[in-house]
Amino acid sequence: MLFIVLLLIIGDVLAISSPIQPFTTYKYSIELQPDIADLWWTVDSDANEITFELHMKTTGWIALGISPGGGMKGADIGVGWVDNTGKVHFQDRYASDFAIPILDNTTSNWLALRGRESDGWTAIQFKRLIDTCDPMDVSIISGTNVVIYAYSLTDPVGDINYHEGRRGSRMIPLQSYANSPPENKFAGLDYFEFRMNNDVIPPEDTTYYCKVFKAPTEYPTKRHAIAHKTMIDPNNIDIVHHLVFFACRSTAKFDDNNLPYGVCDEHHQELSSCFTGTATIWAVGGEPIVEFPEEAGYPIGGDFGSKYYMLEMHYNNQKLTPNHRDNTGIRFYIGQELRQYDIGYLAFGTTVSVLALAIPPKVERFMVDSYCPSGFSKVYFGSHLFLLRNHEPELSNLSFEIGHLRVRMKYIVKAPNINSEIEYSIEKTIESAHNNLFVYVDVLELPWILSTMSY
After folding, report:
1. What does the alpha-carbon distance between residue 77 and residue 95 come to, in Å, rounded to a whole number?
2. Domains of the chain
3. How far apart are CA 189 and CA 191, in angstroms?
4. What is the pTM of this model?
5. Which of 77-86, 318-327, 424-433 has the lowest mean pLDDT?
6. What whole-number distance in Å separates Cα of residue 371 and Cα of residue 348?
7. Beta strands 199-201 and 240-247, pairing class
8. CA-closest candidate to residue 383, choices 338, 413, 425, 409
9. What is the CA radius of gyration of the chain?
């Protein structure tokens, strides 16, 4: 297993479901969960506050929270509902543990403005200070925030009831969000997609499932994919942990009439030629649609080396549900013209082992350095970096820097303010791809800053 950072190299879905018109115009919007939850918000830096509007497909209570580490514990949550008389109720709550969040007994910093119910949906507008200085609140940081949400089917009688599986989370840079392109932007373009085909998810708590696909043959000359869409089976939102889409080596050979699929470990030797070139990745918290810079595209067709692709699915079937089937997949939109540059992935990291990633006991902060030799950058001379993604398998409170070292000079690409748990992937757009020329360097340094709990 590799502990990796992936960099996209050059070399919000605005699909809102709610039938309710927002109360005002907002700067940002995102569909938190298809056909279930939508969120709008505007940041007022002068007033140090954010105004939100949350729509959810229910006539019960709805909730939005800011989590310090990705889970419910320690989260600052606003809970609201509209009763039968049309009155809006709203509460400031704090999740001190994995239990029903308690009412904030210090100050109430989630403030309702307006709300209504219509067509089976509930819409509530509310606001909160960016930094409340309240020990039972979580500050909204300038980097990526973990936003959690939940809902119930009924209004509370007394205390709020348990939401069961009606919950979700997204990683959103609330103060600097860039809306993903609407899907209709790519209407009329050619596309190809690879999907699971009603494949059975094993009744195991964790499974890595691999499926090989033959590359599209309808493009005799080189084309460029300009965007891709991750399509998570709506029945498996709580089961799909992440996916990795690989481009197999050009030397890979398979029987086109019997392409391999199944639990990855059971086919590891057969699939060894496919665990090399990453075409894209997605994990919980990632955007469903990614559009590439206008000067670059992912190469497909012609004499492009990969003749096969492989989709690796990571399922978390914690309820051990038998005979559960999946149709998750990924779609690539093909541009009408070739672009100037090709896109690819570059993976950095260190092997996960006792020696490679050992954290001493009882330390609050520990750095693990990884280095790539100069020969590496000679191969990828002149590349531009435009998107940073990382995925930490089992660590929380991690940050990292990627730097170029040459003599006494150091160029840093940072992913700051990252708080994450096992479920999450961080995706950070690097400002101005043109200014991030990946030139020849003597050494590439990757220090991982690990904050740990004392034992």
Report:
1. 8
2. 28-172 (2.60.40.1210), 190-335 (2.60.120.310), 357-451 (no CATH)
3. 6
4. 0.64
5. 424-433
6. 9
7. unpaired
8. 413
9. 23
